[in-house]
Design goal:
Blueprint lengths: L5 H20 L10 H9 L6 H34 L11 H16 L4 H28 L1
Helix pairs in contact: 2-3, 4-5
Protein backbone atom coordinates (compact mmCIF):
# COMPACT_ATOMS: atom_id res chain seq x y z
CA UNK A 1 0.00 0.00 0.00
CA UNK A 2 1.30 3.45 -0.93
CA UNK A 3 1.68 6.32 1.48
CA UNK A 4 -1.24 8.78 1.43
CA UNK A 5 0.90 11.58 -0.09
CA UNK A 6 2.43 9.39 -2.80
CA UNK A 7 -0.82 8.65 -4.61
CA UNK A 8 -1.66 12.27 -5.61
CA UNK A 9 1.93 12.78 -6.69
CA UNK A 10 1.75 9.65 -8.85
CA UNK A 11 -1.50 10.87 -10.41
CA UNK A 12 0.08 14.25 -11.12
CA UNK A 13 3.06 12.65 -12.87
CA UNK A 14 0.73 10.36 -14.85
CA UNK A 15 -1.36 13.37 -15.96
CA UNK A 16 1.78 15.28 -16.96
CA UNK A 17 3.06 12.30 -18.95
CA UNK A 18 -0.34 11.97 -20.68
CA UNK A 19 -0.29 15.69 -21.55
CA UNK A 20 3.22 15.41 -22.95
CA UNK A 21 2.35 12.35 -25.06
CA UNK A 22 -0.81 13.91 -26.46
CA UNK A 23 1.05 17.13 -27.26
CA UNK A 24 3.74 15.24 -29.15
CA UNK A 25 1.10 13.23 -31.01
CA UNK A 26 -1.18 16.18 -31.86
CA UNK A 27 0.58 17.23 -35.09
CA UNK A 28 -0.19 13.78 -36.49
CA UNK A 29 -3.78 13.45 -35.28
CA UNK A 30 -6.69 14.93 -37.17
CA UNK A 31 -9.16 14.29 -39.95
CA UNK A 32 -6.29 14.30 -42.46
CA UNK A 33 -3.53 11.80 -41.75
CA UNK A 34 -0.06 13.36 -41.86
CA UNK A 35 3.01 11.21 -41.35
CA UNK A 36 6.15 11.81 -39.35
CA UNK A 37 8.28 12.69 -42.39
CA UNK A 38 5.85 15.31 -43.64
CA UNK A 39 5.50 16.84 -40.17
CA UNK A 40 9.27 17.06 -39.71
CA UNK A 41 9.62 18.51 -43.21
CA UNK A 42 7.02 21.15 -42.34
CA UNK A 43 9.13 22.15 -39.35
CA UNK A 44 12.55 22.06 -41.01
CA UNK A 45 11.93 22.93 -44.68
CA UNK A 46 8.57 24.69 -44.85
CA UNK A 47 6.92 24.80 -48.28
CA UNK A 48 3.96 27.23 -48.33
CA UNK A 49 2.59 25.54 -51.45
CA UNK A 50 2.17 22.20 -49.67
CA UNK A 51 -1.21 21.88 -47.95
CA UNK A 52 0.08 19.40 -45.39
CA UNK A 53 2.88 21.77 -44.38
CA UNK A 54 0.37 24.59 -43.97
CA UNK A 55 -1.89 22.39 -41.90
CA UNK A 56 0.93 21.42 -39.55
CA UNK A 57 2.37 24.94 -39.19
CA UNK A 58 -0.87 26.94 -39.10
CA UNK A 59 -3.29 24.61 -37.33
CA UNK A 60 -1.81 21.69 -35.47
CA UNK A 61 1.29 23.23 -33.84
CA UNK A 62 -0.56 26.29 -32.54
CA UNK A 63 -3.20 23.92 -31.12
CA UNK A 64 -0.49 22.09 -29.18
CA UNK A 65 0.94 25.37 -27.87
CA UNK A 66 -2.49 26.60 -26.77
CA UNK A 67 -2.99 23.38 -24.85
CA UNK A 68 0.02 24.19 -22.66
CA UNK A 69 -0.82 27.87 -22.23
CA UNK A 70 -4.43 27.24 -21.21
CA UNK A 71 -3.28 24.57 -18.81
CA UNK A 72 -0.83 27.05 -17.31
CA UNK A 73 -3.60 29.59 -16.83
CA UNK A 74 -5.73 27.08 -14.93
CA UNK A 75 -2.77 26.00 -12.80
CA UNK A 76 -1.97 29.62 -12.04
CA UNK A 77 -5.48 30.20 -10.71
CA UNK A 78 -5.37 27.06 -8.61
CA UNK A 79 -1.98 28.08 -7.23
CA UNK A 80 -3.27 31.53 -6.31
CA UNK A 81 -6.27 30.03 -4.54
CA UNK A 82 -4.01 27.64 -2.65
CA UNK A 83 -1.51 30.31 -1.60
CA UNK A 84 -4.17 32.66 -0.30
CA UNK A 85 -6.42 29.88 1.06
CA UNK A 86 -9.28 31.66 -0.66
CA UNK A 87 -11.46 29.67 -3.08
CA UNK A 88 -12.56 32.93 -4.75
CA UNK A 89 -9.06 34.33 -5.33
CA UNK A 90 -8.46 36.05 -8.65
CA UNK A 91 -5.59 38.06 -10.19
CA UNK A 92 -7.01 41.29 -8.75
CA UNK A 93 -6.47 40.05 -5.22
CA UNK A 94 -2.68 40.26 -5.41
CA UNK A 95 -2.42 43.30 -7.68
CA UNK A 96 -1.66 41.40 -10.87
CA UNK A 97 -4.50 42.92 -12.90
CA UNK A 98 -3.82 46.42 -11.59
CA UNK A 99 -0.10 46.13 -12.38
CA UNK A 100 -0.78 44.99 -15.93
CA UNK A 101 -3.32 47.76 -16.50
CA UNK A 102 -1.05 50.44 -15.03
CA UNK A 103 1.88 49.38 -17.23
CA UNK A 104 -0.23 49.48 -20.41
CA UNK A 105 -1.78 52.85 -19.53
CA UNK A 106 1.66 54.33 -18.74
CA UNK A 107 3.02 53.01 -22.04
CA UNK A 108 0.16 54.59 -23.98
CA UNK A 109 0.54 57.88 -22.06
CA UNK A 110 4.26 58.06 -22.80
CA UNK A 111 4.39 56.73 -26.38
CA UNK A 112 0.90 57.49 -27.66
CA UNK A 113 -0.55 54.75 -29.83
CA UNK A 114 1.36 51.48 -29.35
CA UNK A 115 1.26 48.15 -31.13
CA UNK A 116 -0.58 45.24 -29.60
CA UNK A 117 2.58 43.20 -29.04
CA UNK A 118 4.25 46.09 -27.20
CA UNK A 119 1.18 46.49 -24.99
CA UNK A 120 1.16 42.75 -24.36
CA UNK A 121 4.77 42.75 -23.14
CA UNK A 122 4.16 45.85 -21.03
CA UNK A 123 1.16 44.11 -19.47
CA UNK A 124 3.18 40.99 -18.69
CA UNK A 125 5.92 43.07 -17.06
CA UNK A 126 3.36 45.11 -15.10
CA UNK A 127 1.58 41.95 -13.96
CA UNK A 128 4.85 40.48 -12.73
CA UNK A 129 5.75 43.63 -10.82
CA UNK A 130 2.22 44.12 -9.48
CA UNK A 131 1.99 40.51 -8.33
CA UNK A 132 5.30 40.77 -6.51
CA UNK A 133 4.00 43.66 -4.42
CA UNK A 134 0.85 41.72 -3.63
CA UNK A 135 2.85 38.78 -2.31
CA UNK A 136 4.84 41.11 -0.06
CA UNK A 137 1.64 42.61 1.30
CA UNK A 138 0.19 39.15 1.95
CA UNK A 139 3.31 38.05 3.84
CA UNK A 140 3.22 41.20 5.95
CA UNK A 141 -0.44 40.57 6.84
CA UNK A 142 0.26 36.93 7.66
CA UNK A 143 3.01 37.89 10.13
CA UNK A 144 0.84 40.41 11.96
Amino acid sequence: MQAPRARPRLLLWAALLFLLCTTLASPFIGPREIGLRVTLAALSAFDPGDGAHLLVREQRLPRACWRWSWGGAWRGGALMQTLTRNPLADPGLLGISAGATLAIVCQIAVFGHVEVTAALWAGILGAALGGRGGFRARRACARA
